[in-house]
């Protein structure tokens, strides 16, 4: 079976995260610059191999001062670790539209196995004849597993920042046309 290559349509995709703040609310953010690709055997998403990277310097929480702090050694250490990456090992089919993506997440130079929930939205042809596939991805990681251990305690003894980070993505991919030999 022929290999299909799917390129990310960044204009129709987003990568987000949220973490507890003062244990009473969540702070959300996203990455403005990221890349991803998917390879499948034909259009069989159960065979998908996923490659993803995010440019940490593009982090945004809609607060310039906080974003600057997140780029320092207290958090992501963008100077020494400019990218976050995910490489899938396998996609486990749960049912017709849901999968578990098993792979390796690398952040701050530390790589750990993770399992992400993937909802496959299907494949549709756009008005220009391109096949498009959509996915919603979610999961949770412990920031301390990646060396992001910054923390403070409030005057009342409460934790200012939670350890668990919820990650999410809504992505759209375009199937690449096969190159015809010259």
Order of helices and strands: EEEEEEHEEEEE
Enumerate the strands of the largest sheet in spatial order, edge to edge or round the barrel.
Answer: 1-4-5-7-8-9-10-11
Q: Helical residue percent? A: under 10%
Structural class of the helix and strand makeup?
mainly beta
Oligomeric state as shown: single chain
Rg from Cα = 18 Å
Portion in beta strands: over 45%
**Overall form:** elongated
- The whole-number mean of residue pLDDT values reads 90
- Major beta-sheet overview: 8 strands, antiparallel, barrel
- Report how far the terminal alpha carbons are from each other: 22 Å
Task: Outline the low-pLDDT stretches.
Answer: none
Number of strands: 11
Give the helix tally. Answer: 1
Q: Mind explaining what this structure looks like?
A:
By secondary structure, this protein is mostly beta strands. About 5% of the residues lie in helices and about 60% in strands. The protein contains 1 helix and 11 strands, in the order E-E-E-E-E-E-H-E-E-E-E-E. Strands 1-4-5-7-8-9-10-11 form an 8-stranded antiparallel barrel. The protein is elongated, with a radius of gyration of 18 Å. About 20% of the residues are buried. The mean pLDDT is about 90.
